[in-house]
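Q: Predict the bound structure with 6CS.
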Amino acid sequence: EKWRYAFEESLTEVQGVYATKFKEEIEANSDHEVLLFPYGTLGESADIMEQAQAGILQFVDQSPGFTGSLIPEAQVFFVPYLLPTDQEHLSRFYKNSKAINEDFKDLYANQGLELLNMFPEGEVAMTTKDPVTGCEDLNEVKFRVMTNPLLVESYKAFGAIPTPLPWGEVYGGLQLNIIQGQENPTFFLYSTKIYEVTDHITYAGHNNFTTAVMANKEFFDGLSPADQKVVNDAAAAAYDYIVSYQQGLAEQELDKIKKAKPEMTVTVLSEEQRSCFKDAAKDVEAKFIEMTGDSGKAILDQLKADLKATM
Ligand code: 6CS
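A: Predicted complex:
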């Protein structure tokens, strides 16, 4: 049988490397074949999620940045400074978190999706046309965010004018000055050449990019226990692989950006420069609870407990 798997990045970007490993594992351990559909081949993130829910795709990678309207609790990943930037801590966290592996698993199941993994894609950096040394520099900046209501609230709280857009409109939007900033992990800033249309990279340590891989639940539930094990084992192997693949990746890709564009500035904000982003985080957390009620509060508390337990 041929299984179809779509993701939001190219084959050589992090989601594609994960998907390739997943495919190799499935094919080595079963008679099934996995067909990979990289970003753009079947549409934007929202399109591939619809196709996965409809059962046209068996597997999909959609980041919580796009899942906020479907599963409001998934917006928790956009409470600033909730997640650490330490990749080793993150690697233990996603793997062992009860919030992810039990609570979110149930929430995705309610939407017809079997959550296989969430994994980190690296610290998010802002890239902008003008330098950013604090919130005041984001004033009047139209800042592109993924289509996630809480991320909109975050950038409002940071002082910017948040502009939610699908990925496909970001490069052109920066080129035409419709937007003046966006955020993404370092590897993605290089691979998508976003450095060509922005001049400053700023690290505020406010978030790590989280993504999620799932299967259509009806499809998954219909598999034999042996095939379900093949899928879960492939996801576990791909998780370990992608975590080790990313060791040192951000630094390497940042070097490539500096080579490609020596005039690009790279700034890591000091504690003092971060203070207004950190202050804003409290309001964003309150907003999250306002938006998601008891269920959101419970998952936020669980996530905090899981982060502590995996320190
Ligand atoms: O910003 C975005 O929309 C994209 N960023 C990453 C790192 N992956 C896919 C997503 O579409």
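A: The radius of gyration is 19 Å.
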